[in-house]
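Subject: mismatched residue count in predicted assembly?

I count 314 residues in my input, but I want to confirm that the predicted structure covers every chain. Input:
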Amino acid sequence: MQASNSSSEDQKFLVRRLLISDKSKGFIELLRQLTVCDSVSDNDFEDRFHEISSLGDYHVICVIEDESSGKIIATGSVFIENKFLRNCGKVGHIEDVVVDTNARGMQLGKKVIAFLTDHARSMGCYKVILDCSLENGAFYEKCGFKQKEIQMVKYFV
Amino acid sequence: MQASNSSSEDQKFLVRRLLISDKSKGFIELLRQLTVCDSVSDNDFEDRFHEISSLGDYHVICVIEDESSGKIIATGSVFIENKFLRNCGKVGHIEDVVVDTNARGMQLGKKVIAFLTDHARSMGCYKVILDCSLENGAFYEKCGFKQKEIQMVKYFV
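Triage response: the counts match. Full output below for your records.
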């Protein structure tokens, strides 16, 4: 029964790529739990969606939709950077991972990270990196990451 | 005289975008001072160069050439990430900054960072970020950056 339940949960919370229709399912409201994000017009959303989609597998945003409510409850993104070093290597950059505060404790964050990490590996990256707060470091350690460097930032606005 | 000397130095150490011909000027050898980087064939170099160039202003690698020796003595890169958050904002990611060990003390690192930061600003980014070792944090503070988060990494190879 445990396996069956687990499988049913997995079925319920599938990780898939972002669709334009996810805007009406609370995708922007979910991002707002992460940082500043005013309302975005449908046109602006579609323009940005197509800009990102034009990079194909080089910039992927994934989401988890709660089938019962029709709401997007988790998301994350990864883009692939082409380098010259490491013998013309590639690095995956994970960004903007957030799980709805009402959907915590269901391992959705781990699912998102696994999806994005698997994608980076499949693209031939030699590593995948992300920046996070000190408090969130423990979560990423459970996902197989290790702390390495520090992040520096310069704001323009 | 001071101003004249300084201007002459500036002229001597111009920051410009990477050219294919920079491979024969020690660009790969310079990257090797940063991390693992085996020899790269001319074909592989050109393929990667064109992949990166296809992103236009969204992925820029800059270099400083020592005109007297014809060698590349500093480099750095920045790519621009399109986001949905921050009202469909953009973030600049600075990567792979290195100055030749024999060319330290001439503010070349600051020049590279200024070039990459200015580019990110001109592209409409709301911030520019980079990851570095704890030891290098002080250098980036002099460039106007502040420490914010921690970097987590997962290696595949």
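DSSP finds six helices and six strands in chain A. Marking this ticket as 'not a bug'.
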